[in-house]
Design a protein that fits this description.
The protein has about 400 residues and is an alpha+beta fold. It is about 50% helix and about 20% strand. The longest helix has about 35 residues, at about 1-35. The relative contact order is 0.10.
Length: about 400
């Protein structure tokens, strides 16, 4: 008995571990997008990429803000301030002991014999000029075997203490931070606040319109009996199989004829009639017992009262599912707004159009692009999370009776 419980526990742990692993893989791009939207511009180009946003610390030195770095001084890592970068330096090797080398600024080396009559010597089979450098109070004859560029670092507490180090190989002193100004910059750069308002209005109008027409259509096809009802329903349902690209041209011509081109109403009216929504509500209404409806008719209720007081309250899962799907589609719609709304008419832009323009205007600032993407993604994600319970309930409880 104990061994069975142990096997069951191990099995459950493995299942949960696998599910958590794949869930982390699926969530990582979203988390990375969200954290990058709070980064500074230069932090987005770090290699290797880092998940959390960081900012470099600075200190005030002689009235100027200079960055802090970790620098190795006498075998010990210390925090120094970078006061000068890209100093031309040379790698010098001791003529008598080639394994002994120094990386010093060129200005610290003096040509032996002067600049006009500088002596030369053969070093590793190559004739090289000889320099004199001073190390720990002694003068050493050296040759230049390489060159590089270093930065000059000083101790913030005692500027007399200096050190030379490669800036690119030095680790800056950083702390975890966040830059919420990215979202304000996106709004100011692309007018994202107006686009967000337009998107909310269009989405709400489409959702409310779709719910209204779907509920009325679904009730009519489920409960009202009229000639050709089933054939009309099949015909209406068949429109779902028509690809959207086939409808673009006639829809655009219709908008031109009506005069709705470059107008927000063209983003609403064509989408408030949904064959899928009508089908979903019809199938759910079929699961409601007819006896309830007959009892309401005997009590003198009208068709509209029956629909509003009985069918609508009982179909909350189906309504939540339809609301979620319609909201996601209307919020993320891109192709139709791109066709019907002019690029220059920013007053009628929705979020997807603004993000498309932002992609070009802020191509050198990934943090701003991802901040705009976060603005567009978070609302539908929250709607889906809140409506998930109703969606699952609808999927498990609704039937598909004919």
């Amino acid at each position: 008995m104990n061994s069975h419980k142990l096997r069951t526990a191990v099995k459950n742990i493995l299942v949960y571990a696998i599910l958590i692993f794949f869930a982390a893989i699926m969530l990582f791009p979203f988390v990375f997008m969200l954290t990058t939207s709070f980064k500074e511009p230069k932090d987005t180009f770090n290699y290797p990429p880092r998940l959390l946003p960081r900012t470099g610390l600075t200190t005030n030195l002689n009235g100027e803000e200079v960055p802090l770095y970790y620098v190795e001084v006498a075998g010990e890592e210390k925090i120094y301030a970078l006061v000068e970068s890209n100093i031309r330096t040379a790698v010098f090797a001791n003529i008598t002991n080639p394994d002994e080398t120094w990386n010093l600024p060129l200005r610290d080396a003096e040509p032996k014999g002067g600049f006009t009559n500088q002596e030369k010597t053969t070093f590793n089979g190559e004739e090289l000029p000889v320099y004199l450098i001073t190390v720990n109070g002694r003068t050493i004859e050296v040759v230049q075997v390489g060159q590089s560029a270093l930065g000059r670092f000083v101790d913030p507490d005692n500027p007399q203490n200096e050190a030379l180090a490669n800036v690119r190989l030095s680790q800056p002193v950083e702390r975890l931070t966040a830059r919420p100004q990215n979202y304000q910059d996106v709004v100011e750069l692309q007018g994202m606040d107006r686009s967000l308002t337009n998107t909310i209005l269009v989405t709400l109008a489409v959702v409310l319109g779709t719910l209204t027409t779907s509920v009325l259509g679904g009730y009519a096809f489920a409960r009202l009996r009229f000639p050709g009802r089933n054939n009309l329903f099949v015909l209406y349902l068949g429109t779902m199989m028509i690809p959207f690209v086939v409808l673009v041209t006639p829809m655009y011509q219709l908008m031109v004829y009506i005069g709705w081109v470059d107008n927000m109403v063209s983003l609403i009216m064509p989408w408030i009639f949904s064959a899928y929504g009508t089908f979903l509500m019809r199938q759910f209404f079929l699961t409601i017992p007819k006896e309830i409806e007959e009892a309401a008719v005997i009590d003198g209720a009208s068709r509209l009262q029956i629909l509003w007081r009985i069918f609508v309250p009982a179909s909350t899962p189906a309504l939540a599912t339809l609301t979620t799907f319609t909201f996601l589609y209307a919020w993320n719609s891109f192709f139709w707004p791109l066709v019907i709304i002019n690029t220059g008419n920013t007053a009628n832009h929705v979020l997807t159009l603004s993000l498309n323009v932002l992609r070009g205007r802020a191509s050198d600032s990934p943090n701003l692009i991802l901040a705009g993407a976060a603005i567009a993604i978070l609302p539908p994600m929250l709607i889906f999370i809140f409506g998930q319970r109703f969606f699952v309930e609808s999927a498990t409880s609704s039937g598909v009776k004919g």
